[in-house]
Amino acid sequence: FATGPRQNNSIFYEIRAYDIKPSKMKEFVEIVNKYFHLRTAHSELVGFWSAELGAMNKVVHVWKYDSFAHRTAVRHALANDKDWQGKFLASALPMIEKQHNEVAYLVPWCQLGKPPKEGGVYEWVTFQMKPGGPTLWGEAFQAAINAHINTGYTKLIGVFHTEYGLLNTVHVIWWNESPDHRAAGRHSAHEDARVVAAVRDSVRFLESQQNMLLIPLQCSPLK
Q: What are the residue boundaries of the NIPSNAP domain, all occurrences included (predicted)?
């Protein structure tokens, strides 16, 4: 499980999270929607969201790279892109209070998904697992994810395992039609014996978890 497709495939994802000054959140989103085409001209954006619940004045975006050399070339090109530097960064950087990034791979048993339609909400769940990597907790974690998928109330978008950043971290992205639809589905899942059993097995390897409800920005490919 720990030495299969993930290491053989050079594709990885950079997860970037920015805390925005509260008074500048609306203006930041407007600038992103207006000028972010300058950034996506250089590499593939998977999704761009703002936090609605679980965090405030935070945005999260995910980028796909073919290799680390690819990322280096993109960063070099951005540093020399006068439009990007002048039209976006010059205005946006003063609005950002904090930046954080991680490098992650999709787990071998997951392909990046898409929502069945536009207009829903995304739940971003972060699990901090015990040291040891997927070899220790991978099968139990996969079983817990599949148990939730099988309930049918939610759509799995992706499961990412960190390579740089806080290790043994797993990020899971779910899509739901609405916050109320998610709440009703969660209620049903908690009464499903199969889900309860799978989660109980997986939680043996869990250190902590947290989540956010995210709303896609206009520029986000995942809407």
A: 13-111, 122-221
DSSP code of residue 178: -
pLDDT tens digits for 148-192?
999 888 999 999 999 999 999 999 999 999 999 999 999 988 888
What is the chain's length?
223
Domains and CATH numbers, the chain: 12-104 (3.30.70.100), 106-216 (3.30.70.100)
Q: Say how many C-beta atoms besides its own lie within 10 A of residue 41's C-beta.
A: 12
Tokens found for residue 15: 């997860």
- 216 has a pLDDT exceeding 80: yes
Amino acid (one-letter) located at 179: P
Instruction: Give me the phi and psi of 100, to 5 degrees please.
Output: -145, 140
Indicate if the pLDDT at residue 3 is higher than 80: no
